[in-house]
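User: Can you write out an input/output pair for a complex, sequences first and structure second?

Assistant: Here is one pair. Inputs:
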Amino acid sequence: MKSFSIWQRGMVAALAVGVAAIGFPAQATDPHGLEPEESDIVTIETPKPDWFYVRAGWGIDGTAIYDGRSGKMIGIVNSSQLSDMAIDPAGRFYYVSESIWSKGNRGARQDMVTVYDSKTLKLLTEITIPDRILVDERKQNFILSDDGKWGYVYSFSPASAVNVVDLTKRKFVQAIELPGCAALIPNPGVGFSALCSDGTMATVAAPTGKAEITHSAPFFAASDDPIFENFAYDPAKNMAVFLTYTGLVYTAKMGAAPTISQPYSLQEAAGYAPATTKPLSVGWYPGSRQPTAYHAASGELFILMHMGEYWSHKAFGDEIWVLDVASRKVVRRIALKEPAAHIEVSQGADPLIFLNDEKSAGLILDAKTGEEKHRIEMAGAGVISAAPGL
Amino acid sequence: MATALLTAAGYAGGTTPLAHPAFGMRDPALARSDYIENCGGCHGVTGSTAPALVPELRGRVGWFLCTPETRDYLLRLPNVAHSRVRDDAQLAELMNYVVYVIGQPNIPVKAQPFTAEDVARARPRALSSVNLTRERARNVAIAMKRCGAPASLRDFYDGQTAR
């Protein structure tokens, strides 16, 4: 089954927002059986478990919403080039943290969290935040608290910092400097955490108030075997899952003082020798622009893998390895016909995998069987998000 | 080596540098390439980035050699203390390239080069739980008071406030 995206048809307006109806003069029935089409304004549903959000890609605005079950496009969230999107856990809003200029590529700079209604995709308001040096298209740059009341926007200005936003009052609260740290991790009841260049995890308690920063003991080597910033978070278990460039898997029980597990090797979980950082040691390695996706209900981590050596972490994935994180076993391997750049998995009971590549070719697979469900041309070449498990 | 240093010095200020042992660089070419590889991406290969919102190093960073505290500030910056350059002596030479070559001609009198020991002491005390903006302002105030650094050092580059 083949679907065409709205970009392919050359339309840019959000689907949900129709144009004003133009009055047609009353006419007799068209001899060719054509009826004049009346434009209207429709609304869409709040996020559904099978929905995916696909960034158009570098230099192109918009985040397309797809129903993974039908393969059809539902709408576009109006995200600008330099932005990150987060979804309200209750499904009412789409939040876009973005930097724009009044004249496009020049003029007055404006940094904000833009709030859209999830049913109409209409702009509700803009929350001004401090200017920052640009960060873009990384899911861990912009996270929300589990209750949806607070937004945390990574900022580099040029000290590493986090802009805290009150999403109820729709106001900027404060910037918390977090030198040497980036990639934000939810930490319900505490605040948030982040990974740091000294191999520690920083935890910011009471980020809306005193903002006290503590660090774990160092547990990974940021220079020698870094952690992909595209890590997973399991809200039910309050656990983060990390993967390093060589395939070491860490889990962290979040809290005021997160407990970080001893790592194990992804390759060993698949029956191979563990991968190393040694040059010319060829084997299966994780990689690509968005290499991991996590299905919380089953505890399965989906990882884009390729044959290569250490430091080939940007190579696109030729296989998906499905890791049962708790039992430490690779339980399935799905070979891909075309290398994939980004992977995401839906959070429903019958999960779907969404893949794309730099040519915007989208592919939807059944996450249990690997069966191909839909191919979508011009689906978007950027980062993919899944609707939160609702 | 001397050629590389002179070339870099040409970018940085146009004046002839002192002989390199005085800068605490046994291998200025390596120090320069380490700087370009690890710092130059954001700070610029010649230490100049204005008007980007990145501290301009050229002609400015040398002021931080002023006191033991301001010297320590540079070494405790997380991206310095946590540098991929793990060897303390090699990192000290990188930082000496930054302050003496990129920072020239504005070097406080009697300034001493960084040593491997300085780096080793600073690394475990990286400034990773403080407000760096405030910490920088505090150290700039010291350099102004003790070594006559200009008030423009408060900005990230000369003329920033006026923009």
